[in-house]
Amino acid sequence: MSDILPVVAEFTDYFNKLSIKEYPAEGIPDKLRVSGFPYCGLRHAYMRMLQLPSSSSFLSNYYFGAGKWMHTTVQHALGCGGRIYGNWKCVNNGCKGSRLFSKNNKCPICSSVLVYDEIRLNLREYEQFSNLADCLIDGVYRTLDGEFFIVDYKSAGLDVIRDMVKAKLQNPIDVSNIAQVKAYCPLIEFKYNIEISGWILPYISRDNPKKLKVFAQRISTKEKKRIIKKIELYNKHYLQVMNLKSFKQVELLIEEKPCQTVEQYREEYRTFGGCKLSCICFERKRLLKELHRAWDLREEDFLTWKRPKGLELP
Ligand SMILES: [Zn+2]
Q1: Rounded to the nearest 5 degrees, what angle is found at the Cα of 135, between the Cα atoms of 132 and 141?
Q2: Could you tell me if 137 and 123 are in contact, meaning their C-beta atoms sit under 8 angstroms apart?
Q3: Model-level pTM?
Q4: DSSP code of 127?
Q5: Across residues 1-24, what is the average pLDDT?
Q6: Which ranges of the chain does DSSP label H, i.e. alpha helix?
Q7: Could you tell me the distance, in angstroms and rounded to a whole number, from the CA of residue 100 to the centre of ligand 1?
Q8: What's the 8 CA to ligand 1 centre distance in angstroms?
Q9: Which residue of 6, 83, 217, 260 lies most exposed, with the fewest beta carbons within 10 A?
């Protein structure tokens, strides 16, 4: 028995090392995604100057896959309750039946139960959103009173869920989750011409999906208008960043950056992992010095690096 213990220890050690080992991963195209909000053109330009490599590990792949599976299963289950609007497709042998932005899960052709599909929002036909990548919205919940709320499921560890419940938090800690779901509110209104009353963020445990913490807020018409203005600015800045040719244009991004104060950064723009410029962004001299340095050292493929297909070069 005792001669097997070293093997157990050795294998455990091997597992622990390999589970966190990072290996290079192919980066995804550099698109303007609502799921990446809050957006800052200056931060984006700086990240393109640095061209940090992407990496993944067993753990990051596991969390990604678990989150995806959680979405697939919870969306379908809650969709079948008849109070969630989403897209549906038929998986019955060869049937092409589908429904768009509907809470009806019965196939219009063969009457079988449809499979839930999230709402894909393409807004490129509108000039002010022309650079926005397709948004994937988990669903729109209709309350018993007939109000509409955007739903964006999040997966988290059981410890995180327990801590949030215990602390009786009013809002999730990651402010970027709020920026995303808030942006969906006026965008869905724009496309489907319905009034959105607010948003719901259910955090579901990936270890035990019966445990969850639900956050929700109402949103005013004024705030929705403010968000639209912001997305229009993001849309404009994104193209400027992807077509940057001189430092003068970088200075323009500083002038118009959406995150203007330390307070605003903390409340609205602090994304998971933080912004690499945050420690100098509100000190003009240091900011300019660092941006000059990074601009001068930018790679030759600055304009083509991770450039999405179809986005013309300047
Ligand atoms: Zn069908």
Answers
A1: 140
A2: no
A3: 0.91
A4: G
A5: 92
A6: 5-20, 41-50, 58-79, 158-166, 175-192, 221-242, 247-256, 262-264, 284-296
A7: 14
A8: 52
A9: 6
Nearby residues of 201 by Cβ (< 8 Å), 6 or more positions away: 151, 152, 154, 172, 177, 178, 181, 214, 215, 216
Closest CA relative to residue 241, chosen from 47, 67, 101: 47
How many Å lie between the centroid of ligand 1 and the Cα of residue 112? 6
Say if CB 206 and CB 157 are below 8 A apart: yes
**Span 122-155, pLDDT tens digits:** 999 999 999 999 999 999 999 999 999 999 999 9
Express each pLDDT in 214-255 by its tens digit.
Answer: 999 999 999 999 999 999 999 999 999 999 999 999 999 999
- Residue whose pair of structure tokens reads 């800690």 in the numeric block: 173
CA of 149 from ligand 1 middle (Å) equals: 28
**Between 284-296 and 41-50, two packed helices, what is the crossing angle to 10 degrees?**
40
**How is residue 118 written in tokens?**
């999230």
Query: What's the pLDDT band for 306 if we cut at 50, 70, 90?
Result: very high
Q: For the packed helices 58-79 and 5-20, what is the interaxial angle rounded to 10 degrees?
A: 70
CB atoms within 10 A of CB 173: 12
Distance 189 CA to ligand 1 centre (A): 29
- Residue 197 Cα distances to 154, 234, 243, angstroms: 20, 24, 37
Whole-number Å distance, alpha carbon 229 to ligand 1 midpoint, is 41
Strand partners, 148: 142, 196
Buried b (16+ CB within 10 A) or exposed e, 101-114: bbbebebeeeeeeb
CA atoms within 13 A on the CB side of 13: 6
Report the DSSP pairing between strands 84-89 and 115-117.
antiparallel
